[in-house]
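question for whoever is on the cluster today: can someone run the full assembly for these? two chains, 888 residues total. i dont have access anymore since they changed the login thing
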Amino acid sequence: MRQAKRLLPFACLLLCAVLAASAACAAARFDLQKVYGPRIERLCMVIITNPDAQVLAAENGDLDIISDITRPSDIDRLSSDPKLSMSLARGFHAFFLLLNNKTAPWNDKNLRKAAALAIDRNNIVRTIFSGYCEPINSWLPPVSPWAMADSAKNIYDPAEARALLKKAGYTWNLAGMLVRPNGQPLPKMKLLAPLASVAPTTAELAEQTADSLRAVGFPVDVDPLDFSAMIAKLDRKDYSLAVLAWSMGRNPDSLYSFYHSAMDVAGGYNMTGTRDKKLDAALLRLRYARDRQAAQKASAECQKLLADLVPSVPIYSRFSVSVISKRWKNVLTTDKTTADNMWTLIMAEPRDGKKRRLNMVLADEPRSLNPFAASSAYSWQVLGMIYESLLGTDPFTLEDMPALAASWSVRTAGAGSGEHTELVFKIRRGLKWNDGSPLTADDVKATIEFLKKNSVPRFFDSVKSVRSVSANGDVLTVRMDGVSYWYLDNIGGLPCFPSKVLAKISDWQNWNPLDKSARYGPSGLVGCGPFMVEEYRPGEYVMMKKNPFYRMLSNPRPGSAAK
Amino acid sequence: MKRRWLTGRILSSLGVLAAVLVLNFLLFRIMPGDPVSTIIDPNFSPEAKAHLRALYGLDKPLVQQFFIYIRQMLTFRFGLSFLSGKPVWDELLSRLPGTLALMASSMVFSSVLGIWLGVKAALNRGKFIERLVLRAGAITASFPGFFVQLVLLMLFAREFPLFPLRGSVSVPPPDGGLTLTLDYVWHLALPVFSLTLMGFGGWALYVRNLMVRALGEDFVLMARARGLSESRVVYGHAFRTILPPILTILLMSVPGLVSGAVITESVFSLHGVGTFLLEAVSGHDYPAAGAAFYLLALMTVVSNFFADLVYGMVDPRVRIEGENR
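^ ran it for u. tokens below:
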């Protein structure tokens, strides 16, 4: 505790400095469409599973980039190294206290509100995370462009919580625990949490949350469980309270998955069992918003209703922290993106002008490089370098930006029950796959049709509503079933594959693009991203080389650096 | 009689394997959750989850799943890993050489060193060398593995960078057979040293106790009275009598050679079977976990069987009932 307090001013200073630097960088925004790169010949993703070894490797100079550093002790250690530069950004992580809205006492809105007011988020942020996260009071992470204002405010107010409970007719017994309006004491409740051996910080956080709740009279004890057993209980709604982290997207449509009554089914994510007609209607308006304006209105309405209903209690959102060696220049950081982003990899150049390979950590084995079957984040850390989508994400605003598509439009076609969204993408001219063959709208059409035809689970939800796809020259038109503004991101975010490769894949599940025997389809990962796989040595590294046909290599090489 | 014993032993081994097969199947299905239930991604709808479950064959009746599993195990076609989508055999085979090299070499070093020190300690009762072996053995065996390995990593890979921090080859690996082999040995040195350091103590203490008891036996006194050399007395007579329990431990360690060392592999970022097993169990990867545990059970049963056979060879006192003496 004492050490955490000692570290806090340092952490706050670091946070201020990094956010200020990021803001300064954001202010010096440049035209992302005119970026030239990749400027490095090789990118090596070195597999180091031990976080301590990652830190030592960065200190030794063996690693240039480490992503997603979570332990405050590592952040402190690395930030004191003069050879390294830290970058910190708000992340999409959000941590919640889940309350079972279906059973007493959490079926009472006042009690849920009291619980939300009873939790001292600042204390959690300070003592457990040494300041490397922020308290949240919103059902979307503060980084989301759709989050409410004041979403990072600490609403801790135990006096107000007690007042709310008193107003609801609750009293306190001599032990300080709550007594219901009917005179019966509130029964003991268990707060489900992962085992300390698996998730030590979450286990500690559960203890602090239980302490906070006990302080206002809720008789709560922590019940550590194996993660699978915990999820099974949440799925059955066989719990009272639980702590769980979500990785949220930038868009608010995930709220539908978490709080709409249609998702209160086995395997659904409405684990709190929220069922509210007003909220359901607002979530439907959000899910099927016609345009951005309607989506914005519905998103605000949903968040307002959630703030009133408090089906779960938002606690904190973890910052993304990464480190990069100062031997590299042209590093892009914003308050929303850490230094390990694709733009940095495209623009980075050795500061001393010598040719050098950039070494980046891969914190676990990618296991599979089949883009249709790969599900781990590590596989996609590699595959994300090889494949590109129609739309990209602006690192400064997190809004859509042109990638393979130079421009796009969303319109509602048809009338009455036949109304549907029509997406029109204009594909850039002169694009090439990394084998030199041309990339056309027909390839994107083939990708969407392949994913839909094979019901590839990873992309199932993105393409299930596709009614038809047509390609005409460099224009791709996708007609959807029904109307929704989010269809744009569903289709625009799909990785694109060459039609000639897709046509030869006989079994997408067993397809191994690195298998030279090509038993289930052609070998080789043919993509259009900035890098391509040169060698994958399981357990050791993935060596990538520059894609000589990458679209940004056709931009003029600038004389001055980006940052 | 020997044939009857062999038949009985084989049948009981097969019985154990059958029980393992059934338990292997049931235990993973009894565990809460399945490979799909732990996916927590708002962009992965219940409909997509159901589709994935069907792809994995988890929507089939349990009896049908059981027969598919039995067929896979008996034909050694273990199917595709749920986590990687690759054949389980390929995954295991890609990890086995690294695990075997790590575990076999550390087992050889720690057992040879431990046995030698144990014998030395027994021969020097009450002297400094015995106290040293006993204390060093107790200390190294009782320290947590990850702690010792992290300290070694910080000392010999960071402060005095004599060894690499990770993996089993350099990035990129050197060309040429000899330099590649040397590079591999260099990468393996610190993990093997750490396992030897943590493993020799147990052997030393065990062998010292066995040897102390053996050296106090009458036949040792008799051998010395016959004027045999000390090394003959120690290694030809006393040590021979303690070989069966040593062999038992050695043979029972064989499954450990392939199951790997989860912590060591994690600390040194090694591509091994240990971490594969851990991921398979925690990720509900039924085909991978089922295959790995089946193979481990197979190795345990076979090792046990061989231990029984070898007993008779190394110790004339152990003979199957009815066998000619």
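summary bc i know u wont read the tokens: The two ends of chain B are 13 Å apart (CA to CA). The domain at 88-314 of chain B is CATH 1.10.3720.10 (MetI-like fold).
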